[in-house]
Write a structure and sequence with these properties.
3-stranded antiparallel beta sheet; 44% helix; 398 residues; globular; alpha+beta
């Protein structure tokens, strides 16, 4: 007779378990996969695996002209479509040495801040939802609809606005539109205190987020983390202030860079909420300046076939979720020779490899949601290679 020992006490208990979260899972914001190694209820190591939404956007850039690539760049962060377009057209305009009309500059700044508020409201509502609070989501969508209405009126789109053009904007805003924006901003501002009482005043929410998922300033620099996530860890950097573009150089008295020192989930949420308040102030300041501007063009006349001169340039913007960069290389043709995209979420999500080890599985969703990423923005966007795993630190271009 043969005896087989199946397991004995400590030997079985010391075995690590590998748990896959995703790629189809409610807590992963879409098709993201987390490969966790667990020791009981505690995470030993974490590996984010991306590439499930790989569409080779950078390779497609090389086969589209400078008007068509705006549509491709529009889509990787579907909550920040206007800001995505902006980085592309700024890079092309820099290559052409083109000056954009003043009215278009201020309108771009206004629309960028409205888009920032729309982006942040989505996360202000969805993050509490992941922790068990469904009510804030309804509040967030109520406010979003106020701003979506004016964005849809001016551009014709609710998600992919396609309103930027090389040299300015597609067209001027409709008659009476600035007044309707003021009304929408007033309604949103009036309701913003609800989030303080409903979320920040909730002791369960604070208990689930305070001192959870602490990201150090050292890790921020090591992983190339940017945006509200970096500022929540005390890294005081914002392109709108430190390397002003558009009209931000003239809005320094209104612009307030929100920072925290704690670096935990609660600090990241507070940064997002305070930044939303400031974006409402910036939008109103843009409206005030536009009211004083005389009528004028909002774009430049372009040749039928637009070609950028031979050379290369790098343009970057402070997108709602962090730094977006566009490295454009031209050979003098009507299509880019190379357009490398550095997306905010791609870098930010790498911090999970540092944040999750040592934490409990129950805190995993709280930490993951506090990174405020968009899966389409965190995929590998390049066309020179198959989608794969996200490893190591990141350089300037992600």
């Amino acid at each position: 007779m043969t005896e087989t020992v199946i397991g004995i006490g400590g030997a079985a208990e010391s075995t690590d378990m590998v748990l896959n979260i995703g790629p189809q899972h409610p807590s992963t914001h879409g098709v993201l996969r987390l490969r966790l190694v667990l020791d009981g209820e505690r995470v030993v190591s974490a590996e984010p695996v991306i590439g499930y939404m790989h569409r080779g956007a950078e390779k497609l850039f090389e086969a589209r002209d400078y008007r068509q690539i705006i549509m491709l760049a529009n889509r990787h962060d579907w909550l920040s479509a206007f800001s995505n377009e902006l980085g592309v057209v700024m890079a092309v305009e820099r290559m052409l040495g083109m000056e954009v009309p003043e009215r278009a500059v201020w309108l771009r700044t206004l629309l960028a801040e409205l888009n920032r508020v729309l982006n942040h409201l989505m996360f202000l509502g969805s993050y509490p939802l992941e922790l068990g609070g469904i009510t804030p989501m309804f509040y967030a969508f109520r406010e979003r609809e106020e701003l979506q209405a004016v964005m849809e009126e001016v551009s014709g789109g609710r998600m992919h606005y396609m309103f930027n053009r090389v040299g300015g904007l597609k067209e001027d805003v409709p008659l009476g539109w600035p007044e309707r924006v003021r009304t929408a901003l007033a309604r949103v501002r009036e309701r913003m205190p609800d989030y303080d009482g409903l979320i920040l005043g909730n002791e369960i929410f604070r208990g689930r987020t305070r001192d959870v998922g602490v990201l150090s300033a050292r890790a921020v620099h090591a992983y190339g983390v940017s945006g509200p996530l970096a500022r929540a860890s005390g890294v005081d950097f914002d392109l709108r202030r430190d390397e002003p573009y558009l009209a931000y150089g003239e809005l320094q008295d209104v612009l307030r860079v929100v920072t925290r020192e704690e670096g935990d989930c609660l600090a990241r949420f507070e940064c997002l909420l305070d930044q939303t308040h400031n974006s409402l102030d910036l939008a109103e300041a843009c409206l005030d300046h536009l009211a004083e501007l005389p009528p004028g063009p909002v774009n430049q006349r372009l040749p039928k076939v637009l070609k950028a001169p031979e050379g290369h340039t790098y343009a970057w913007t402070e997108n709602p979720l962090g730094l977006n960069g566009y490295y454009l290389v031209s050979k003098g043709e009507k299509t880019p020779y190379r357009l490398k995209l550095r997306s905010a979420s791609f870098n930010n999500i790498q911090a999970l490899t540092e944040l999750l080890p040592g934490t409990l599985v129950a805190d995993m969703v709280a930490i993951l949601g506090s990174l405020f990423f968009v899966v389409g923005d965190s995929r590998q966007v390049g066309g020179r290679g198959a989608p794969g795993r996200l490893l190591g630190g990141a350089g300037r271009f992600g």
